[in-house]
């Protein structure tokens, strides 16, 4: 059922022309989070909750623990300030409202410069999965 809904949504996006530059920015943000964590958003599993990768990254960011998302295999091979900046830019890219997402030239500028960035808002597709008896349901969490 979920796969059908996703295909229907993609079909609607293509048919109605809702795919945009902001969709590319969103995808870039997801890709950055996947690279930093070495985990895919699709099928992401965490022992402490049922959130997807975006929800997990968002919660860590809100709690000031965003470096916990970094793959343990690369812990000693990066500058924390660069990774923190990458995570914050990724979260700006996946904000729920496309109007709040930066364009790619702004993303490149933010990644390459040490400047104050806007505060990220809740990501889009921030979902909690409930798995009961092998069946999965999705709950979209709304921000305050």
From TrEMBL:
All residue ranges annotated as the Serine-threonine/tyrosine-protein kinase catalytic domain in the record: 15-108
Listed SUPFAM superfamilies: Protein kinase-like (PK-like)
Keyword annotations: ATP-binding, Kinase, Nucleotide-binding, Serine/threonine-protein kinase, Transferase
Domain of life: Eukaryota
Keyword ATP-binding found: yes
UniProt KW Hydrolase keyword: no
GO molecular function: ATP binding; protein serine/threonine kinase activity
One Pfam family linked to the record: PK_Tyr_Ser-Thr
PANTHER family from the UniProt entry: G-TYPE LECTIN S-RECEPTOR-LIKE SERINE_THREONINE-PROTEIN KINASE SD1-1 (PTHR27002:SF851), RECEPTOR-LIKE SERINE/THREONINE-PROTEIN KINASE SD1-8 (PTHR27002)
The protein's name in its UniProt record: Serine-threonine/tyrosine-protein kinase catalytic domain-containing protein
Species of origin: Cinchona calisaya
